[in-house]
């Protein structure tokens, strides 16, 4: 009897872990906005985005969030990045999740993950605050906007973003 109970607990734990959802992509799969394209300051590699040598200012790319079945749950937005300044405002990496009604223009900010809230200066990740909700794709479109800013020779790289079910 005890063995069956242990097996059942293990199976339920595995099923819950398998059901957890994560959606994300390398930053290079996102589309630069018109100002970023015109400025010519964006450098990409196989997965990451950053400033070209000598380029400064803000670079922005937009990432479409593909439709998925979400159910109502708690979520976090994860940003995988490097910001050589830590919390210094001279540079930052930021991911923001937005939604907008289909056929409408009212944009809602749902979550933000911001490098300047961490003193880490090496490759790392940061989470947004948890938010609760269901992604309603028949009613809304969703996207993630990634921004990189630097004023000088700081190193700011965005590797990827993930939308994850919170623990």
Which labels suit this protein?
five-stranded antiparallel beta sheet; seven-stranded antiparallel beta sheet; Jelly Rolls; mainly beta; 167 residues; disordered N terminus
SSE order and pairing:
Blueprint: H1 2-19, E1 22-26, E2 31-32, H2 34-39, E3 42-44, E4 49-51, E5 57-64, E6 73-83, E7 91-101, E8 108-114, E9 124-127, E10 131-133, E11 140-150, E12 156-165
Antiparallel strand pairs: 1-12, 2-5, 3-4, 4-12, 5-11, 6-9, 6-10, 6-12, 7-8, 7-11
CATH fold type: Jelly Rolls
How many domains would you count in the coordinates?
1
What is the overall silhouette? globular
CATH superfamily: Galactose-binding domain-like
Q: What is the β-strand count?
A: 12
Mean pLDDT: 88
Q: Radius of gyration, Cα only, in angstroms?
A: 19 Å
Low-pLDDT sequence parts? 1-19
Output the structural class.
Answer: mainly beta
Proportion in β-strands: over 45%
Helical content class: 10-25%
User: Largest sheet, described in full?
Assistant: 7 strands, antiparallel
How does this model look, in words?
This protein has about 170 residues and is mostly beta strands. The protein is built from two helices and twelve strands; from the N terminus they run H-E-E-H-E-E-E-E-E-E-E-E-E-E. The longest helix has 18 residues, at about 1-20. The chain is globular, with a radius of gyration of 19 Å. Residues about 1-20 have low confidence and may be disordered.
